[in-house]
Write a structure and sequence with these properties.
Number of helices: 1
Order of helices and strands: EEEEEEEEEH
CATH architecture: Roll
Structural class: mainly beta
Helix content: 10-25%
Number of strands: 9
CATH class: Mainly Beta
Distance between the termini: 30 Å
Length: about 140
């Protein structure tokens, strides 16, 4: 990825460098950090899964999508795993790929979560970090 994705942007992350029970394989993720000085090539993300957790916890956030992501991520529901924060290089990230235009140029699905969705993700992150009491301060 040549540009820093904004906070709340849905990206595809290559998690192939990790081992189970860590997050593995390519999957959607949500950027949760802003661009920080001296960290242009790193960002903080939370991964998503289409598999519902066996036991839903406060650190899980159900992201419903009226307009699904492109195949193979085209589920209407994604579980955001907010207990699994990762700092990754932007080189591991891509926008979801839609296809190519008539000239062969790649087309990407670039979208961001709305303010309410981001508030839900942030609250779930705080629960996952054991800081549930801070959720009342989210705006």
């Amino acid at each position: 990825m040549n540009e820093y994705p904004g906070t709340g942007t849905i990206v595809i992350c290559d998690f192939d460098f990790l081992k189970a029970p860590e997050m593995v394989k390519r999957r959607p993720a949500i950027v949760v950090s802003p661009r920080l000085r001296q960290r242009d090539n790193l960002c903080l993300i939370v991964p998503c899964s289409t598999t519902e957790p066996r036991r839903i916890m406060p650190y899980h956030y159900l992201l419903r999508m009226d307009d699904p992501l492109p195949h193979p991520y085209d589920s209407g529901e994604h579980w955001v795993k907010c207990d699994m924060l990762y700092t990754v290089a932007t080189s591991r990230l891509n926008f979801p790929f839609i296809g190519k235009d008539a000239n062969g140029k790649r087309i990407y699905d670039i979208r961001q979560l709305n303010a309410g969705q981001m508030r839900g993700v942030k609250a779930a992150i705080l629960h996952g970090m054991g800081m549930s009491e801070l959720t009342e301060w989210l705006v």
